[in-house]
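User: Show me a protein chain along with its predicted structure.
Assistant: Here is one chain, sequence first, then structure tokens.
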Amino acid sequence: MQFSFCCFLAVSLLSCSEDEPVAVKTKNTNGYRAATTAENVMFNFVKAYNGMDADHYEALFASDYHFRFDVTAVGYPSVWDVKDEMTATRHMFGGAVSGDSRFGKVLGVKITLLFDENSWTDVPAALRSDGEECRRATVSYQYEINVEPDWTFVNGDEMDAEFTLRKASDGSWKIVEWDDKGFGCGGDRRMAATTSCEWNWGQVKSLYLYDD
């Protein structure tokens, strides 16, 4: 069976230490699922992203989370942490303009994740800390992100990302790594800035990663 959620492992050693739960600031938990399985976490991921709900979105990530661009990327940071993830996300969801003068605030988001029920596999013991449980899966995604004044970012073909989740001491699962697979515009930020070629999700997020 294939899951379609409408809403997006490195070879390094994973640090599978225990995480303290991240408090969700909003009292509205209606529709979100308990993070007791990887599938539930990704359901919540899509729901939070499509709903532009930064507080529930933040609760999905481990404290040592990292996002990695594809190795073909040129002119982008190779990796960012949960602080950077939330800075970009809160700018996107909170009505901030982008760091590129062509693009204003995000007006709406629609993300679809596609993956098979058997996609999740255990991370080999050699790539994680002893006694910890980590799972990973490659998912395909499509997105549509509407931005002022009249821009729509959309990928016509499915793109891939790899997610790694870790089980915390309270039994909940957290996203510890998110890796881009492939890159739009040939992976070159200079090309993306001057052409109408297809961008991937990480490229769009990076527009909103800047210090206030």
